[in-house]
Each structure stands twice: as structure tokens, then as C-alpha cells.
Amino acid sequence: MAKILVVEDEPKISQLITDYLVQAGHDVTQQFTGAEAVEWEQTHRPDMILLDLMLPEKDGLTVCREIRQQSGVPIIMITAKVEEIDRLLGLELGADDYICKPFSPREVVARVKTVLRRLGNQTNQQETQNNLELDESRYIVTFKQQEVALTAIEFNLLNLLFSDPGRVFSRQQLIDNIYQDHRVVSERTVDSHIKKLRKKLNAINPEDEVVQSVYSVGYKLVL
């Protein structure tokens, strides 16, 4: 059973999503404004957040950005905007998936199940190489004895690079391995996630570039 936070300002939609998730066996809490969502997440630490894009007080992108500053909790964005830039912007801010309105409640349950399974399928192995440690069961990264707060996508990117240090992974290989549901993802989105991952690692170790780019090819991990 996962503890899920639903952030949706339309009570009927929020209740509909909640009813289906509860029926699927999850523990669900509803919040109706962005400010309430950020405060609740900080104190209760849910396993997943379903986050509407258009919210009062703070919109969904602002909420996503603030949560991502301190937590890697999986976030599924819910949006009525269908422009590709909105989808990409949500993903670049750290969302793990998105659902477009109008949607079927069964689709929401299926997306939640997919994201949770993707996280749960990680092995329980804890690996360490040259001051970099990845705990796949808890999605925790420790670099030079300092814990690094990564989003789920950033963790998966690092985990893939970490699986074969020195190997150059093309952007398409990263997309194929990280987004296994075959969604349309641009190389620009991958570059954005890598940029944020690199920034977090460089904050701990500014002397060496751990995640390196290979011009016109892709990225590699150097330990």
C-alpha cells in the first residue's frame, strides 16, 4: 500500500481519483491548494504525489519545483494543457510522468501502478564505487559521505551511468532505458535532467566533473 497525496482543486475530480486509488489499495490524502500541498508533503512524506498543474495560491509547476528542492518523491503531473512545452517543462522540473485531462480514473490507477512498479523493480543492492554509493532499494545516493537529494529520474539516470562507468551512453539509450513506457521525450529533456544531476554532484565535488558529456555522442560517468 502506497501513501499518495492528491493535489487537485476541483473537489469532484479529486474525490473521483481518490476513490479509485483507495479501491486499488492505497492510502490517499487530498489537498486542494499548492501551499497546503507543500506544507503537507514536508511533514508527512508520501510515497507519491498526483499534482494538478492549475492550482490556486501556487501552481503545480511551482509546487513541483519547491518539493524537488528537498525530496525525490515520485510526482505525476495532471494537466489540461496539451502543448508539448508544458509537458516537457513539467518533466524538466522533476515530474516522473504526466496525465492529460480529460482522463479515465482507471488510467490514473494504471499510471500510478506503473511508476510504483518502476521504483519497486529496483534491486535491493547497495553498491559503492570511489566515494559514490547508490542504494536502489531506498533511492538514496551518497557521494563523498554526503547524501544527495535526487529525483527519481535523476536517480535512474545516475544508476544507468553507474552500471558501467566510463561507457558513453547516447541520449537515445538514456531515453530508452529511463522511459520504458515509450513516451515521447526530447533529447533536450534528457540534457536538462543531466544538467541538474551534474550540478548536485558538483556542489559536493567541484574539483572533478563526475558526469561528463561527450560532444555529439552522449554522457558517461567518470569515477
TrEMBL record:
- Which species is the source of this protein? Grimontia celer
GO biological process, any: regulation of DNA-templated transcription
- SMART domains according to UniProt: REC, Trans_reg_C
UniProt GO molecular function: phosphorelay response regulator activity; transcription cis-regulatory region binding
InterPro entries in alphabetical order:
CheY-like_superfamily, OmpR/PhoB-type_DNA-bd, Sig_transdc_resp-reg_C-effctor, Sig_transdc_resp-reg_receiver, WalR-like, WH-like_DNA-bd_sf
- Keyword annotations from UniProtKB, A to Z: DNA-binding, Phosphoprotein, Transcription, Transcription regulation, Two-component regulatory system
Protein name per the record = Transcriptional regulatory protein BaeR
Where the record puts its DNA-binding region(s)? 124-223
Give the gene symbol: baeR_2
